[in-house]
Amino acid sequence: MATDFFAMLTEDLARPIRDRLSQLDIDAEVSLAPPTRAGSGDLSFACHSLARFFRKAPQVIAEELATCFDSEPRVTQVETVSGFLNLYLDWTHVAPQILEWSRTDDGALGLSQTLKGRRILVEYSSPNTNKPLHLGHCRNIILGSTVARILKAAGGDVVRVNLVNDRGIHICKSMVAYQNFGHGATPDSSGLKSDHFIGHYYVLFDKAMNEEYLAYSQGLAEPMNKDDYFNSELSSLGSQTRKMLVDWEAGIPDVRELWSTMNAWCEAGFEETYQRMGVGFERVYHESQTYLLGKDLVAEGLDGGIFKYAANGAVVFDLETIGLNGEKAVLRADGTSVYVTQDIGTAVKRFEEYEFDQMVYVTGNEQDHHFRVLFGILESLKPNYAGKLKHLSYGMVELPDGKMKSREGTVVDADDLMDELQKAAADAGRSRWPHLTEEQLFTRAEAIAQGGLKYFLLKYAPVTTFVFDRERSISLEGETGAYCQYAYARATSMLRKLDNADVGVEPDYGVLSHEQAQAVLKAMLAFPTDVRTAALELKPSVLTKSTFELAKSFAAFYNHKDCRVIGAEPAAMAARAQLVRCARRMLGAGLELLGMVALEEM
Hints:
Blueprint: H1 5-23, E1 43-46, H2 51-54, H3 58-65, E2 75-81, E3 84-89, H4 91-104, E4 119-123, H5 135-153, E5 157-164, H6 169-181, H7 187-190, H8 194-217, H9 226-230, H10 236-250, H11 253-277, E6 283-286, H12 287-290, H13 294-303, E7 307-309, E8 315-318, E9 327-331, H14 339-354, E10 358-364, H15 368-381, E11 389-394, E12 397-398, H16 414-432, H17 438-458, E13 466-467, H18 470-473, H19 481-498, H20 515-536, H21 541-559, H22 570-593
Parallel strand pairs: 4-5, 4-10, 5-6, 10-11, 12-13
Antiparallel strand pairs: 1-3, 2-3, 7-8, 8-9
Helix pairs in contact: 4-20, 5-20, 6-8, 6-10, 8-11, 13-14, 14-15, 16-17, 19-21, 19-22, 20-21, 20-22, 21-22
């Protein structure tokens, strides 16, 4: 069973107000929510919207409605302030109900049927097979995989998909560099992880191209720009690369063999990184298999008047039909496809395969225009796609010294970053956990490093651009993954020491009226709603905040001198032990939804 106790509680407590209004033939929305101001009770109702029915001041209305709770055992006090009806709960009465729910109900773990019956595809990662995954990819992968988990928790039928960009001029650059400088080397012979091996040649190409361009432009008063030079016959490397692409499209066997070998190396490296990050996909597409899919759809659209021929012979889409300026080419004059052509075909293929209710594309905000155009074209071709296509746009992750550049080799490779974080966590842990073997230390440090990376990249709203802070990401203090993991480990340690000493003891739930215990119970009540909000808004930052708030309130509880569990009077110990067990269960759920390991000891 998956129910939301807070929703049921507020619905029950709103009923007396609704009944009173019904007696007066007033049909108005009544909703109780936590007050926005501290010290204003546990639940609040604004009476201002009722003024037009009562024709009285909101404060007078609040005072009249306060009597609705005279016989409600879950409410100990009703306060009226400035037109607000503030309710104070009897936590001695409510706490055992919350604990029973959080101990046994899957709704306490964030599970719901909110999106039941909806099939949702989430596309993320989408790497190029000419370089290893980097920090920017980490945000994409972690954001996409977490959104998929949250959508599934909300009852969605989720399919995780990846589109590997394995063809094009950028792939040919690595191939040309390998032909010129590889001398038959392999990842094994070089001792490099296979995707790093490929990335090495992408950087080599850019370095060689810079040297070639410098030699060309030296002494010239007005040399052509670098891109024009690359596309001219003057550039040896440019000519080789363009010929490589033509030969690939023509299916020349030795070119296809080299391409297949190098792509296989790169994708094998990707898979190692995915496994380390704990992510995967139900379906992996390749651009080499999909880039021609849209051509038939373009022909169909031409017949239907959706596309037209431009003066230069290209087939274009009039952007003014979707509120933009200009035209967008969907086929070049020579009949070859462009990037958006592939995306058109891939989207239709996916719909034919999965009949999705929503397709979520997780990409950076530099592609905002591309997806607005793509969705406009798709909805013109397939009106039934309207409202089913979503671009989850996110800001860039920057370094303290600026942006990353793949071609110049200044990116932070994902594997190197994870190694660095793991080493830092292990170095810090050697003195903290001297009893661990090196293997045990590695495992724990890896969980902290992965958790720190994921939490840091998720705690910002997707639209935010931010600077990644390595040291802060794995800190045990502040709003971090390690802080949340520590709260879970601390709860586990307390229960281990307790060793079921509370079993059979009648709990005194009155001790859970303590301010710190109330804060934990309130954080637990908020968790399911936050998971649903994170799913509906595609915003995992709501979940990171909720998990942190639970961890923070739990830390304040176990650190307070008046909330002792171990060594407390038996009845108090029994009640507090139940709170620890239930908070631990929900913390574990939050960590799992975020893709983090819940550590038993830290």
